[in-house]
Specification:
Layout lengths: L1 H25 L8 H29 L7 H4 L3 H23 L7 H35 L9 E5 L6 H10 L3 E6 L17 E5 L5 H8 L4 E4 L6 H4 L3 H21 L4 E7 L5 E6 L10 H16 L5 E7 L1 E3 L10 H12 L1 E5 L4 E6 H13 L2 H4 L3 E4 L5 E3 H11 L4 E5 L7 E4 L2 H7 L7 H13 L13 H8 L8 H12 L1
Parallel strand pairs: 1-2, 1-4, 2-3, 4-5, 5-7, 6-14, 7-11, 8-10, 9-13
Antiparallel strand pairs: 10-12
Helix pairs in contact: 1-2, 1-5, 2-4, 4-5, 6-12, 7-9, 9-10, 11-14, 11-16, 14-16
Bound molecules: nicotinamide-adenine-dinucleotide.
The site of nicotinamide-adenine-dinucleotide (NAD) has 29 residues, from β5 and β8.
Length: 496
């Protein structure tokens, strides 16, 4: 308001000065001795007119939402609003002078020039503020860490479905990456980048403190994706699931905090919403209905308890993921329905009316990378649903989308053993705060899976490497048995 006052008064002063200057320049010599009188007249005109004109304009500006950030003023037509309000202010002033009396009458040319200068100044100032904001915002989003300098990220579970999509994106963005992973599903997921000099692998169990301490050295941020993932896999061994998904998360977060690692991104899931017919956002009640969901929700709680000025974790609740990555999973609904339709000629729908949000694995990875790029003030201590409002579907609708691309496949229903989870999720927060917008649609993801099968990249989608439940059932949970190190030590001693 003060800036607008100054600009309006300066505009009037400039217009009067310009008129005086032109008079001096072009009037004949006889009138020059009267210049002193003219200057006095102009000054008194300025002092009489400036405040009424400024006051009227400020009232008009106020009523147009300039100082209360009104809806229209904030919108796309801000420049038009400014032009309209300034013009209206000048018109009202002119009308007032006409009705009230002649002492405040400004020459018409002065009024016109003052109006033009006011317009230019008020519009220019607002444009400048916007340009400045954009530059500052860009700078702050380009500066990933408050401390600046080093950019090394520890990705725990970096050899999994999401991890193998995330690591290349982090490398592209200039981060160095360290992966801590037991490589439960082999080395293939990380083969495309394992020889990159900016990638380090710590192969080990993240439940072991020494592995985490070693992996945490000199890192600026931690992304924790490691877990036993999915309801069926988690139900195999309850104690092991709690150990891997919850106890380890607390230990890792405590170590990150004591190592001074402020940025911590934790992979949670929309499964925490359980079963509900309402549209759910980050503030909605959470009611997980599986052990998997409970371990994720409990981990979120632990992280919030640890949050303070030195430790600002960000929780991402992923939608159900689809599409291909270095470790594609075929135990997820879009991928498995597409593969089954193409290979077995059948689309088997379990239940069908349950709502579920979906997001492509590449978009999920992008969301994590964007969070790492963002100023900590924007994302620290926050929870984000990751997905998009447009990709909430019922399982039946997913079946239909697959059918549109594999028309020869039969749709069959199987109501036994249907997954009871049912949630429609709102993703406005991540869109508004981060500008996150998925690049993939479910249709594109289905096509991607079908092409991978057609090209022979995926031969048998039922292999255990593609399914967490099958893999853990077939290999047993020996890889993850808590006392594995002890057994290995005994074996080594026996062998030596
Ligand atoms: N894929 C989805 O649809 C989905 C949806 C919501 C949330 N999430 C979450 O995202 C994260 C990643 O999911 P994903 O689909 O990539 O899972 P994934 O099973 O493909 O990957 C998990 C990775 O963790 C590793 N791992 C497991 N236990 C370990 C241990 N004790 N020590 C070291 N490494 C270990 C595995 O080797 C694997 O590489 C998980 O936390 C999951 O809960 C996934």
């Amino acid at each position: 308001m003060l800036a607008d006052t100054i600009m309006l008064q300066m505009a009037l002063m400039a217009a009067l000065a310009l008129r005086l200057f032109i008079m001096v320049l072009f009037e004949n010599a006889e009138s020059v001795p009267q210049m002193g009188d003219q200057l006095r007249d102009y000054l008194s005109l300025y002092f009489q007119s400036a405040w009424p004109l400024t006051s009227i304009c400020l009232v008009v500006f106020f009523l147009n939402g300039f100082y209360t950030y009104g809806h229209f003023y904030q919108g796309r037509y801000k420049a038009l609003m400014v032009i309209q309000a300034v013009s209206l202010g000048y018109l009202l002033y002119t009308a007032m002078v006409y009705f009230v009396g002649s002492t405040l009458v400004l020459p018409r040319s002065v009024l016109a020039v003052s109006w033009l200068i006011s317009l230019a100044a008020l519009l220019g100032a607002r444009m400048w503020v916007q340009i400045w904001d954009a530059v500052m915002h860009r700078e702050s989003t380009l500066r990933p860490f408050r401390s600046g300098g080093k950019r090394k990220v520890l990705v725990i579970g970096g050899a999994g479905y999401i991890g193998s999509a995330l690591v290349p994106k982090l490398l592209e963005r200039g981060y160095d990456v360290r992966i801590l992973d037991l490589l439960l599903f082999g080395e293939d997921p990380i083969a495309p980048f394992s020889r990159n000099s900016r990638v380090e692998l710590v192969r080990g169990d993240f439940r072991h403190v020494e592995n985490v301490v070693q992996a945490m050295r000199d890192v600026d941020a931690v992304v924790h994706l490691g877990a036993i993932v999915g309801d069926p896999a988690c139900s195999l061994d309850e104690a092991l699931t709690i150990d891997v998904n919850l106890s380890a998360t607390r230990m890792i977060a405590q170590l990150a905090k004591s190592a001074g690692v402020e940025r911590f991104v934790f992979a949670s899931t929309c499964s925490v919403y359980g079963a509900c017919d309402e549209m759910l956002d980050e503030r909605s009640e959470v009611r997980p209905i599986s052990l998997y969901g409970h371990t994720k929700l409990a981990s979120e709680k632990v992280l919030r308890q640890l949050t303070d000025a030195t430790f600002s974790p960000t929780i991402v609740r992923f939608s159900t993921i689809y599409g291909l990555s270095g470790r594609t999973r075929f135990d997820l609904v879009v991928n498995v329905l597409a593969a089954k339709a193409k290979i077995d000629g059948e689309i088997t729908i379990h239940g069908g009316d349950q709502w579920r949000p979906f997001v492509h694995v590449d978009d999920a990875a992008n969301a994590v990378a964007m969070i790492l790029d963002a100023p900590i003030e924007l994302v620290g201590g926050e929870t984000f649903n990751v997905g998009s409002n447009e990709q909430n579907y019922t399982i039946h609708e997913i079946g239909e989308l697959v059918h549109q691309q594999v028309v020869s496949a039969r749709i069959t229903a199987d109501n036994g053993g249907a997954d009871k989870r049912n949630y429609r999720v709102d993703f406005t927060k991540i869109r508004n705060v981060m500008g996150f917008k998925p690049q993939w649609t479910v249709e594109m993801g289905i096509r991607q899976v079908l092409e991978a099968i057609a090209s022979g990249d995926v031969v048998d989608y039922q292999q255990s490497q593609y399914s967490n439940f099958k893999f853990l059932t077939e290999t047993g949970t020996a890889e993850l048995a808590g006392d594995r190190w002890a057994r290995e030590l005994i074996r080594d001693l026996r062998d030596s």
